[in-house]
Amino acid sequence: MAEIRFWEAIRRAHDEEMANDPLVIAMGEDIGVAGGTYKATQGLYDKYGPERIIDTPISENGYTGLGIGASFLGVRPIIEIMSVNFAWLALDQIANSAVKVRYMSGGQLTAPVVIRSPGGTAHQLGAQHSARMEKVFMGIAGLRVVTPSTPRQAYGMLKSAVRCNDPVFIYEHELMYNMKGEVPDAEFFHPLVGSEVAREGKDVTLFGYNISVHWCLEAAKLLADKHGINCEVVDLYCLSPLDRAGIKKSVSKTHRAIIVEEAEPAVGVGAEVMAIINEECFFELDAAPKRVSAVNIPIPYNHALEKATIPHAKDVVKAVRAMMGK
Amino acid sequence: MNNTDKKRLLRDMLFSRRFEEHCYVGYVERKIGGFLHLYPGQEACAHGVMAAAKPGFDYVITGYRDHVHAMLSGADPKAVMAELYAKETGTCKGRGGSMHIFDVEHRFMGGYALVGGPFPLAAGMAKAIKLKGGEEIAICFLGDAANNQGSFHEALNMASVWKLPVLYVCENNLYGIGTRIDRSTAVLDQYKRVAGYNIPSEQVDGQDIEIVYKAAQKAVDHVRSGTGPYFLELMTYRYRGHSMSDSNTYRSKDEEKEWIERDPINILRERLIKAKVLTMAEFKAMDKEILDEIDNEIVPFAEQSPEPDVAELEKYLFAENDPWVTGGAQGEAS
Ligand SMILES: Cc1ncc(C[n+]2csc(CCOP(=O)(O)OP(=O)(O)O)c2C)c(N)n1
Ligand SMILES: [Mg+2]
User: Fold this and answer.
1) Which domains, from first to last, does chain A contain?
2) If both were cysteines, with which of A102, B90, B100, B232 could B96 make a disulfide (CB 3.0 to 4.6 Å apart)?
3) Is B207 helix (H, G, I), strand (E, B) or coil?
4) What is the ipTM of this complex?
């Protein structure tokens, strides 16, 4: 088992899947000759050539639609949208074409595309480069939405997504590409459904996904060390469909829940998880579930303002202590 | 094209006309729901192009005015009518409707309701053909007003840069719903717009099927030869309103009359009669045969077919039993 970086894990999945199937291609802005903004396809242009590692024009809706059309004929495109902020432009083809062709054709056609894109608040990138769009994609019926929190997940999920016959959106984080983690040397495929207990605990469940899993783990450690509170951390790596059974299981054990999200609270992961808790295990609760979310504003440029907009581990600690009365 | 071919084309166009006329009746009788966009007036476009292409081999995609394009690719008229009647025996098991006919077996890759949506999808199908090394081409039929979408410019640029085997057919009927082309579009001749993408193009009369056929042959040959995309503009007119909910008050009666005088079916019929290849009696017999088929076979099939089962409401959202969703055969248990 080797420790590799997040981007290396994604690159490895590309490489293996492209070697395995000549109909797997990758496309996106600057992914070829330039090697990819976050190096996810570094070196693959030389290996697979311009017909399979495609530098696209800056036409998000156009090349996403092109990838979808190619997938109708059995091609398996991995489409990189440079930043999730630009994915707004591709929503037409994702939401109107990719996810609807199977249903409206009565099962005749499918669009097995993978769309990967980094989002989140990085380092003072300002309002138009700091979107957290997972909630938008979660609301699209027919789209599978997954979001890795570790290199291991990033590798295994991309591999499964390429082979899966449904359109899959993979939400990555701009700040996580250099994060290191263990990835098995042997090939493996990570599920595209479910959730993972990242830390066992008994007092309160912290639900996180993507970067917020790390805030939850940091908070859980501090709470255990300093306040004697034993948090369970559940990694919701699959945002659509959310893991109802996993959510129910953990809340039925701890009887308390806090959802930690980098996004604004409205119509988001937190709201959805709270609804599931309500529907699945309301009578198991010892406290009203809470959300730790971002402030509902465009992300400001100023560092202090930016920091005050999105949650951090200390906000999780505060919320847990308030809930536990400690 | 020999005389037998021409007679067959005439019959096929007449079939499409009568099929669409029945749809009108079915809609008025409330047996067909939703939005319904009919094709009368434009028959020479799709019929002429598909006569030059290889139906069932080439991949075809279009917008919401799609019944005729689907049938020309090989879709069974009974299944198309059943789809309009929202039945389980329809092309899409009643899940699609008029604007979303699909017949993937015959490579009719769908009708799409978002104006401009198919432009990049067609380029993508062409990319797939190129990657797989096939002889097929992708054909995308859309209207004039669709060319004002960004997707037109994005897709044509990519198709040209990557020399993709895709034929874009613009059925220029001069209107996008109720807005005449000169009120929405800076360049009236659509074939000129693609010069900006270095794509060869031509504009021809879309009412005379022999002219369409000839132009389409040239276009199809170009695309099939692997030299890249082509754009064919066909000047045409729809007789009815944009859809059934359109009052059609924005066009002058004189304009409509002028176009109806150049009816694609009449043009070919008169030519064949004049050449003594066809008699009026033969034409009438042909028409009766078509109406009989529609009234006695196609419509009863649609009417008598069962509706979809509500218990299967969520079927077709995702692929069924896809092993990779749970991590595949070799997947680790999480
Ligand atoms: C994205 C989008 N915008 C608007 C509409 C509404 N609409 C449907 S058809 C149409 C006109 C399209 O005209 P044209 O492309 O010339 O095709 P025609 O109907 O004349 O064949 C409009 C505005 C739509 N369906 N999709
Ligand atoms: Mg038009």
Assistant:
1) 2-183 (3.40.50.970), 196-324 (3.40.50.920)
2) B100
3) coil
4) 0.97
